[in-house]
Amino acid sequence: MHFQNYFLSYTVVPLLLLTIATSYYRFVIIEDYAVAYEGECDPYTQTCFVGCEDETCAEEYYYSYVERRATAVSELCGDTIEGCDEANFCGVGENRCSVTFCDPDTDIGCEVLTERDIPYEAPEGEYEALSENL
Amino acid sequence: MICHYYPEPSYFIFTDSVPELLYYSHIPVSILALAVGFFVYQHNPKKVTNRLLFLIAITFSLWTFSNLIAWTNVNSGLILFVWTLFGILSAVLSILCIYFMYVFLYQKDAPTTMKVAFMLLLLPLLILTPTDLNVSGFNITNCDAFEFEGFILNLYHNMLGGLAMLWIGVMLLMRYRRASAVFRKQIILMGLGIEFFLGTFFSITFLASYLTLIGFFADSRFEMYGMFGMFIFMLFIVVLMVEFKAFNISIVAPKALVALLMLFVASQYTYATSTTGVILTSFTLTLTLLSGLILIRSIDSEIASRKRIEELLKKLEHNNKRLRELDSLKSEFVSIASHQLRSPLTVIKGYTSMILEGSFGPVQPKLKEVIGHIASSSQFMASSVEDYLSVSRIESGNMKYNCVDFNVATEVETIVDDLRRTATQKGVLLYSKTNLTKRGMVNADKGKVQQIVQNLLTNSIKYTPKGSVTVLVHDEPKKKLVHVEITDTGIGMSKETIATLFGKFVRAKNAHTVNVTGTGLGLYISKEMAEKMHGSITAHSEGEGKGSTFILTLPMVM
User: Do A19 and B126 touch (CB under 8 A)?
Assistant: First the structure.
C-alpha cells in the first residue's frame, strides 16, 4: 500500500535525478559534445562562406565551418577559441573533426576572390616621388 | 567553451544582451507561482493537492530559471546541460497538472494504474534526455544548442502537453456533470486556469522553437509570452481561495490583492534600466508595502471583531434556545398547576356564592362581608388561573379558534350592557356608539372576541378613576376592516409604557396607583388572540393622565 501511494516518488524521482546527473556529467564534467564555430578562411585561396558584420551588412567577413569535439578544442585552446589558431584546422589523426568550406554547387553566396580583387598597395616612397614631379 | 561574442552575465543571469521582456516574463511569474504554491503547501503539507500545486510551481520555476540560464550564459557545457532539462521539466509539468487536477476533482489520490501510465509516459524522456537525440552539440557562434537533433523529443514533450490538456478536459467534463452547484464554479475556475496555462505554455514555446528552427524567426524570444499563462492560473487559484476557501484556506481578498500589488510594483525592477528607475520603483514599493500593511492590520482587526461578534451571537442563540426550552417547561408547569388550582377554586366560588345567597341559612352581616372578600378573591384567583391557562395554550399552540360570521356591534353592545353596572358603581360613565357603513360582520371566534372586548373594556373602567369610557364600533369598507375603539379619560400612558404594554406580565407603571391587582397577562392574551384571528390591537395615549384609546381591528365580512 505504501509503495502504491508513493509509486512515482520511488520510480520517477530516482530516474529523474539519475537523468539530470548523467546530463550534468556528460555536458559539464567530461564535455562530451560537438562544438561548431566559424573558422578562418582565406577568400583568395579557399572558397569561403560570407557573413555580415552587422544587420546592414555594410561589412562582410569570410569563414569556414568547423565542427569538432569540445574536449579537443578545450585541450588546444582552453575555454575560448578567440585568438586560438589551432581552432581553425583539425589536428593530425583527430577524430570527428571537420572543416567545411563553401561549396558553390550546393551553397549560395560562396566567395572566391582573384588577384584583380586585391587592392593596389603602392611601394614605399612612390606617392612622394609622384607628387614632387607634379 | 565560452561564446566569446557575448558578454558574461553578472549574478549568474543578468546581462544587457538579452530581450527586454526576458526578466519581466520569467521572474515575477515564477515568484508568484512559488509564493502561491508555498502558501498552499505550508497550510497543510500532508494534503496531496497542496503538495502537487507546490511541485507544479517548483517545476515551472526550475524551467524558467533554466531558460534564463540558457538565454544569458555563455558557457557551452552549462547551456547544454540546462537545455536538456527543458524537455523533461515540461513533461513532468504536464504529468503533475493531470495528477493535480485528478486529485482536485475527485478528492482522492490517483489510482496506481494512472501512476504507472504517468511513469510510462515519462520514461522515453527519462532515458533519452542525456543522449544525442535531445542535444548533441553547441554552436559557439550563436551561442545555442544544436536544435535539430532534439526535435523529436521536443515534439514528444510538447505532445505530452497536448495530451495533458485533453486528459484534463475530459476529466473536467465528466466531473462537472455530477458536481454540486458550488463545486461546479470551482471546477470552471480551476479548469480554465490550468487549461489556459498549459495551452499558452506548450503552444507558444513549441511554436517559437519550431518557427525559429525553420528560420521564420531569428531567435525563440516569442516563447517568453508562454510564461504568462501561469500568472492567470495562479490568479484563478487565489480567486478560488478567496471565494471558495479552496485547499481549506480562507484568505480575504484585500490580503491577496495587496500581495499581488506588491508583486506588480516589484516586477518593475525587471525593466528599470536607469538608477532613477530603480530608486522610484523602490520608493513606490516601500509606499505600497506600508499602505498594504496598514490596510491588512485594519482588516485583521475588523475580522477579529467580526469573529468575536459571531461567537457572541452563537452563545446568544444557544442561550435563547435554552431560554425557550425553560419557558416551555414553565408554561407546562403553569398549565398543570393551573388545572390543579381550578377545581378547588370552583368549589370555593360555588360554596361562597351559595352562602351569600343564603342557601345554608341566614348569614350575619359581618360574616357576609368576610365571605364577600373570599368570593371576590377567589374570583380574581379564578380569572388569574384562566389567564395562565390561556398563555399556556397560546404558547403551546393549543388554543383553538372556532371562527364564524357574526355581528360584532351586537356583541359589543351586549358586553357594554353587562359592564354598565360595574362602571356606574365606580362612578364612570359608559357610552356606546356605532358608526357602521356596512353591517359590521366579522369572521372570528365569537367567544374570543367577547373575551378581548370585555378585557379591554374592563381595563378602561378599572383605570379610569373618574370620567367616562366610550365604546365606538365603526368600519372602513375600502380596507374591509371593522374597529372596536374604546376610549377612556383615565390615567393614560407614556410612550415607553405603550411600547411594552402587550408583553407578558407587563403592567403600566402607574397602574398600581389605581388597581393593585392584575396579572399583566390580559393585553398579551388579547393581542395574541386578535392576531390569530387576522386582526390586531393597538393602544394610543397622549400621555399619563390624558386617557387612553385601545382599538381592536378585525377583518370585515362583506
Answer: yes
